[in-house]
Amino acid sequence: MPVKDYLRLRFFPHLWCAGCGHGTIMASLIQAIEELNLLKNNVVIVSGIGCSSRLPGYLDFHTLHSLHGRALAFATGIKMARPELTVIVPMGDGDASAIGGNHLIHAARRNIDLTAVVLNNSIYGMTGGQNSPTTPLEARSTTTPQGNIDPAFDLVELAKGAGASFVARSTAYHAAELKQMLMKGISHRGFSFVEAVSGCPTYYGRRNKLGSGVDLMRMFKDRTVPMGSEKKKNDPSLIERGIFVEKTRPSYTDQYRYVTQGDCKDS
Amino acid sequence: MKPTAERQTLKVSVNTAWCKACGICIEFCPKKALGQNADDKAVWKHPDKCIRCGLCEQRCPDFAIELVEEV
Amino acid sequence: MSGTLRFIQGNEAVVEGALYAGLGFYAGYPITPSTEITELLAERLPKRGGTFIQMEDEIASMCSIIGASLTGKKVMTATSGPGFSLMQEAIGYAVMAEVPCVVVNVQRSGPSTGLPTAVAQGDVMQARWGTHGDHAIIALTASNLQDVFKLTIEAFNMAETYRTPVILLLDEVVGHMREKVIIPNEGEFVVQRLITSVPEGTDYHPYLAREDGRLPMSDFGGVHRYNVTGLVHDMWGFPSNDPTVAYNLLRHLVDKIEKRSHEIARYQEHRIEDADILIVSYGSSARSALHMIEKGRDSGIRIGLLELNTIWPFPYEVVRRAAERTEIVLVVEMNMGQVYQEVRRAVKTDRVYLVNRFDGVFISHNDIEKTLNVVMGRGV
Question: Are A and C close enough to touch, i.e. 3+ CB pairs under 8 angstroms?
Fold first, then answer.
């Protein structure tokens, strides 16, 4: 099915700014779902609040635009109530790791079988450009006029440390690679965490003189390297892309079925 | 994606209503086959250079450019 | 009523009522004095094919039951004051997205950590106005365990009928005391989830009420794909900031409950036909009020009790009618006068007196008697 068949066309053009990476990431997500040929009726997309959280509204699945930071809690209820559904949870970086941090680490700890996709543009875009837990040190934002002094999370390390059994990172520039990771994450039976580095030209790019969507995309190309690449050794500031964790660990819904009903297969 | 040989019949189509003139497709087209129209929106400027790789469609944030069957 | 006779705790009566009503998903978090509800359901819900989960906090508990409800399950969570405060934003979401769910608040003495094991009824106004913005809410309460069982079922029925969160506002005394309860074999009226009859491929509107006001649902995972959001939304569930859409939605959200308060009003009248003095009370305070009726009548004072089982929407009409014949109205509750304010708005007489305690000690008939003597000019 062509990508367009997954869109709720009446809402296009979408609301994201020119050059924002979110649209590209949404395209990769659709292509991943399409290639896995999941049935539309079996897919639930749950988002929080923010620019990234408008993603489900554009897609022809069961869609839930929930509360800021709480997408994973809503999604856990859905997955536990109907384990056979594929649950995908797009969130913003602040949505997932600031207000939503508690639910993020517990969803990972439980290894609940759903796919968290963090559209990480290192800023709160919807509210006009405040710094988030992934804004780099010294970066400018409307709430760090003197330069950001909050050290940033490494979302991959955070998810790894909390026990996620699938952890990957790519960028809006590497759209094909991102699609592959999303396919693997969605198919993975456990908590999958995919960080999709995205660009916010309107606030992050402008305030930090990093230019437009094109410049941010080029930055993703030049400032990231495949995991284990030599370049990383001589320039540690480069960000690694790849699949950092991929291990089998009993998923929460399988464990729950096992301890309550004794069998372990999907119903 | 169809194998390269068959792709020659594909053409690049731009939905100017959705295109926001962000320039990403133009910048990262490996063959510089895309250009800007009067409103800075993408246009298939050099079809001859185009290898139909689909990277423009892949990276477009607005679903505004795609490879379609030549009709 | 044929059934099994049980001698159980109030919190267990909630569990019995929920299971009877068809509870399918429960999420909770430990907090005194409601934890027994979570513990009992951890044990019993899975055995009934339902799903139990202890979430990482009360916010997550409330959010996860909303998610589960959208997949077609009857859902519940239980907490107490501090947790109830944390749940407010999500309760507002369930109001806005019209998601059926039951929230049990076994009240304890507040505010803040307060007296965690002590009884109080200080969350009445929070149950009404805890979440932000104009909205309506249903809150039920009970003073004995047979009523707790019955009102829990009612809470699920009303949640389904009006597609709304329903607050079951209990208190530590009712929650922890033990009492005889008859669990009926069957026959207690249980409202099932109303599922749309719109066939696949036809446009289903999740937010278009039928003439009877009921909104048929469609499960996540079912044949109709739609959007759910906390934003003001159109009848398909998609965001809209059109003033007319906003006006119609909020008007609908409030009217679907406030205009039906007569249907939602649950109350019990004890000997008010010939009463000179009316007591209005609810929850465990009503037990002392009942005791006071006997005591008062023994000494020739004709007292009647109007016990409220519906707190919100407040049954003004019922209170006004009950107080018509009496000069003196006492409102007996364990807070600083929360239902008292509403009773004063409902009744004509200005001889409305508050009989209360908020020091963590259960209010007794002696407390009522002391105030009554003062009110009747006899002094203590």
Answer: yes
ipTM given for this complex: 0.96
| Domains of chain A from N-terminus onward | 21-260 (3.40.50.970)
DSSP states along C47-115: GGT-EEEE-SSHHHHHHHHHHHHHTT-EEEEEE-HHHHHHTHHHHHHHHHTT--EEEEEEE-B-STT-B
How many A-C residue pairs are in contact by the CB < 8 A criterion? 120
Chain B residues touching A14 at Cβ < 8 A: 62
Instruction: Name the fold adopted by B5-65.
Output: Alpha-Beta Plaits (3.30.70)
* Residue from the list C24, C89, C228 with its beta carbon closest to the beta carbon of A64: C228
pLDDT of residue A267: 45
Which residues of chain B does A214 touch, with a Cβ-Cβ cutoff of 8 Å?
A: 22-24, 27
Please count the other Cβ atoms lying within 10 Å of the Cβ belonging to residue B43.
18
* pLDDT tens readout for residues C193-249: 999 999 999 889 999 888 777 899 999 999 999 999 999 999 999 999 999 999 999
**Chain C closest-CA separation from residue A239 CA (Å):** 31
Alpha-carbon distance of C110 to C119, in angstroms, equals 9
Per-residue model confidence as pLDDT tens digits over C11-42: 999 999 999 999 999 999 999 999 999 999 99
The pLDDT confidence band at residue C157, using thresholds 50, 70 and 90, is very high
Residues 6+ apart with CB under 8 A from A206: none
Inter-chain touch A20–B61, beta carbons under 8 Å? yes
Q: Which positions in chain A touch C64 (Cβ < 8 Å)?
A: 73-74, 76-77, 80
Domains of chain C (ranges; CATH) run 1-264 (3.40.50.970), 268-375 (3.40.50.920)
Q: Average pLDDT in the B56-62 region? A: 97
Residues of C in contact with A106 (CB under 8 A): 55-56, 60
Q: Give pLDDT, residue B4.
A: 63
